[in-house]
Amino acid sequence: MDSQFTIRPTTLADAEILCDLGPRTYIASHGPFITSKDELNNYLRQNYALDVVRGELSNPSLHFFIAFAASGRPVGFLKLRPCALPVPQMQPDSQEIQRLYIDDQMQGKGIGKALMHSAYTLLRDRDIHHVYIGVYEGNAKAIAFYTKLGGILCGQHTFYVGNTGYINPIYQITF
What we know:
The chain has one domain: 3-Layer(aba) Sandwich (Aminopeptidase), CATH 3.40.630. The chain has 5 helices and 7 strands. It has helices spanning 15-30, 37-47, 50-58, 111-124, 140-148, and strands at 5-9, 63-69, 74-82, 95-102, 130-134, 152-161, 164-174. Helix 1 (15-30) crosses helix 3 (50-58).
């Protein structure tokens, strides 16, 4: 593990941290692409309300990992769930990285890769050796990251923020 950060599974006590970290990192990574700031704000309120995050953290089919800088400041997180993406010939145990967000200032330091490897370890322990992820087609930096991890394009879907749809290619990563 890099001495600049640590990663651990989340607990229910991390709900308030994710309610802050989620919107902050989502706005940094997706804000420039979202055409309506009202739709963006509504999306964030719906997905990062404290009761919603607590419910997700209490759901045994969802798994979160959180990264902290050496200072103790939360700088990124990953959410793993049963795959809900429209993937042809998907196996029943397939999982999806639904969220992987890192503070802008901490990108390029190996945090995203380490969070992915935390998910891989959890899945390997369950004899699962692949994961899916949808990423906005305009997010070249994220696409390059998933491709570097071995991601293979296997489909696409439309992700909605409010009434506006955004095309998301779907990648399969085998590990």
